[in-house]
Automatic annotation (TrEMBL):
Superkingdom in the source lineage: Bacteria
Organism: Pseudomonas frederiksbergensis
Keywords: Glycosyltransferase, Transferase
Entry annotated with the keyword Transmembrane helix: no
Domain called Glycosyltransferase subfamily 4-like N-terminal: residue spans: 14-169
Name of this chain's protein: Glycosyltransferase
Single annotated GO MF: glycosyltransferase activity
Domain spans labelled Glycosyl transferase family: 188-324
Length: 359
């Protein structure tokens, strides 16, 4: 079996890229041959897997990538392909027309994610194309799978759920390394790319509001992105610049996740928030905005962590204050957590993909 991961780009701070790497490493451990095809020419830094470069960005890059990918599939004997993000999905669809290669088109983001300027009508057309023939579509949460099935009801039998590969020995080992210097000993934590849908501006407003009512740990935010300047300016305006610490991108955020007193997810939209799984695996209590897909399913309707209303500063601030009053309620027993996150191990995720291909 030669499995080719097809991606539009490869951002080192991307959650999608992390879970694809973990899945790829599990396939390698299973004895499969694994390669990457990255359309814009980025290199997937993954030992044991070759990166094959595409034709670049834009429409011209897409057309070149289709031609290159088609040639690579024949030359390298690719038998199975996993595409992620819509440009890569579309490239894979054109490149595999008439090919015996078994293709899985994946959806990781919520359908209403404002980071992607694709209308529901275009999404319906795209997923209708992907489902022509014998190929499969995979969603990374059950809620997202249902949303796709509602979008393309005639193809619902070939829209499947496969959990992300999140929990690995490498993650657990990485969490044991020393903390960064210069950070507070007790802190709450937010993690993610600094873009509007992640709701970090909401997090700062809620933190400032809660700080008026109680003594709180400092707030640490891990991540980089276009909103960094706006968020630092907001922290200054709110008078909390001394209590909020922006670390920028960290290749290993796991020691901070493990030591945080609370991990807070303030997103407006999520497919399946990997950082919540990582926090649960490392024994960290979580507080999450109840997006349409992802957190409620992952946290078992609030059994594994607090859920609060999306895009509601007061609700998020109240959740923060509740975590101070009843910290034990935000931390389920280790056995309950172990049972809940077992499906997000790399071994389980790889088996789910094998099952989809074997249908």
């Amino acid at each position: 079996m030669h499995i080719l991961f097809t991606l539009k780009d490869f951002k080192p701070d991307g959650g999608l890229e992390r879970v694809q790497q973990r899945l790829a490493r599990q396939f390698l451990n299973d004895g499969q041959q694994v390669s990457y095809f990255v359309m814009n020419g980025d290199t997937a830094d993954d030992e044991g897997a070759v990166t094959l470069k595409g034709g670049g960005s834009g429409i011209v890059g897409l057309l070149k990538s289709v031609r290159l990918l088609r040639r690579i599939i024949r030359r390298e004997g690719v038998t199975h392909l996993i595409a992620a993000k819509e440009q890569a999905n579309l490239c894979a669809w054109f490149a595999t027309l008439g090919s015996p290669c078994k293709v899985i088109y994946t959806r990781h983001a919520a359908l209403d994610c404002s980071e992607q300027s694709i209308s529901p009508a275009i999404l319906r057309l795209l997923y209708g194309l992907y489902l022509c023939g014998n190929d499969q579509v995979v969603a990374v949460s059950r809620g997202l799978r249902q949303a796709l099935a509602d979008l393309v009801p005639w193809g619902h039998r070939r829209i499947r759920y496969c959990p992300n590969a999140v929990v690995t020995e490498q993650l657990l080992n990485a969490a044991q390394t020393p903390l960064l210097t210069g950070l507070p000993t007790e802190f709450w934590l937010g993690v993610g790319r600094l873009v509007e849908p992640k709701g970090f501006h909401l997090l700062l407003d809620a933190y400032a509001m809660a700080l008026d009512s109680a003594a709180l740990p400092d707030l640490v935010i891990i991540g980089d992105g276009p909103q960094l300047v706006a968020l630092t300016t907001q922290a200054h305006r709110l008078g909390i610049e001394d209590r909020v610490h922006f670390t920028g991108f960290l290749s290993n955020p796991y020691p901070l996740i493990r030591h945080a007193r609370l991990l807070i997810l303030s997103s407006f939209h999520e497919g399946l928030p990997t950082v919540l799984i990582e926090a649960l695996a490392l024994g960290t209590p979580v507080l999450a905005c109840d997006c349409d897909t992802g957190p409620r399913e992952l946290l078992d309707h609030g059994r594994l962590g607090q859920l609060v209303k999306v895009n509601d500063v007061s609700a998020l601030a109240e959740g923060m204050l509740r975590s101070l009053v009843s910290p034990g309620q935000a931390a389920p027993s280790p056995q309950v957590v172990a049972d809940a996150i077992r499906q997000y191990t790399s071994q389980y995720a790889a088996q789910a993909y094998y099952q989809v291909w074997n249908q």
